[in-house]
Fold AA9 family lytic polysaccharide monooxygenase.
Amino acid sequence: MAEHVLYANRSEWADITPLEQYENDQPLAPIHYTVEYKDATDYFRGIVKIGERSQRVLELTKAIIDMNPGHYSVWQYRYETLLALDADLEAELELMNSVAVEHLKTYQVWHHRRLLMMRIRKPAPELHFIANSFQTDAKNYHTWSYRQWLLAYFNQDDLWEEELDFVDTMLNQDIRNNSVWHHRFFVVFESGIREGEEDRERVLKRELIYVKQNISLAPNNPSAWNYLRGILDHNKIPYSRVIDFVRPYSVPLDKDAADLVDLENPPPSKGAALPCPQAIEFLADIYEAEGGDSTLKATEEQFRLGVELGHEGSGPTGSYITLLATFSCCASFLTYKMFSKLAALVALAFSAQVLGHYTFPSLVTDNGLHLIQVNGVTTPAWQNVRRTNNFNSRSPVQDVTSIDLRCYTSETGATAETIQVAAGSEITFLTDDNMYHQGVANVYMAKAPGDVSSWDGSGQVWFKVYEIPAVADGTTIEFPSTGLTGITFTIPKNLPDGQYLLRAEHIALHSASSFGGAQFYIGCAQVEVTGGGKLPTSTRLYPTLMFLSNATGNGTPGTACSLQFLIGS
């Protein structure tokens, strides 16, 4: 490489008077330039002063650009000199290719190319140059901005024709490239729209399927989630339209779930790291838009589901810590708005769980949380079990004189669908959390005089069909039901056909040493028994549900005991 010769030592520049950069007599922080750079820029100021436009000006400006590609004054003067000399702009574009690749993040490089292209007006080869430059940096803002300008400025059909295929190729190389997702939106929904050539409804459906499939492959990809939001916002579609797709991504992965092929709502891929913070934020926005009590109920329900499905048997405290750890490891993805929402949702979701509360919701809602199993088949929550008025808080019944002790009779619209069960068949009530407290479990039935869906279960009609009692040896006591996630029992095989209320309860005794301290966790399902016989003599009849619990010892209905005394601790 030839040794650099200062312009001050070049005879061909002897006619130019160099001008130093003025920094006043005593600059506070003078910039330390290299000798070569100071020499070149001094001569540049000299030729600007006299307004020279010549070939040697192009050589000088190229030398300065090589040393400082961000010198916008030099770029502008070079462009004006090219026009004054009627220079070959295509040759200039070729000359600047190496500069662009070497200085991709310098705005002036791309602005100069833009000025040249407005004169050359041959955009197709430039698209290929840009594509090649992406091999060096596929996420450079200036490069993508230049490509979008090129497409929109010339707006030629042949340019747009293959652009979507180009986007697909780029996303196949890196599905998380946010720049490519942004460009796809630009092509499909903004400047790339070719009026009258496409069915926009078909395009909308295509893009929804496309982004969902990509989320399925990489659920924790914020770029794809943002694209989904962009589609919905642009087309004025409420987020609730995709809630069925979002929900499975907001909870831990169900590794035992059956493989499903659903093009419109593809499930998470095997091995996906769930729950996904972006999905949880998506749900929060849906519930926020809905407003009202449904917001609190839905958010709490969703978080509880995530913990229980992902950390079975860990207990409420362990689940809480695990979910917080999930948020912590994902902190780099969280916006302040998103983190605030998640923090609020955590508080909602665990306000009841940290107390160890639970319900017997029987049949699941469409989120698969609350379950009852009949003949090995799991049915949706609150479908065949009457929704309780505590389904949100999961707090227990403690007033044994309340009508809610029977079947949450005070809940408005608590009726459910009636499901057929065979006499002698096995049924499992599953809780929405394990039966955390020490206590006993019981199952009762009551035959309705007619349609069970409109019957409140009043009267001397209840009888016990199953129990999980305490086990004591005189000095210690154990409660086998503690920690279980459900109660499994058999419908008496000789039970007469007809419609019944089926009631499960867990009586938590941890606070029962004081009056009103016993906690009743209850669920009531509606069943129609078939293939039965006569009333079994082995089941014990009770005059009313009120006497399902013992007396406190002072004549007041209720349950009283001291676990500390019984355990002997």
In short: The chain is about 40% helix and 10% strand.
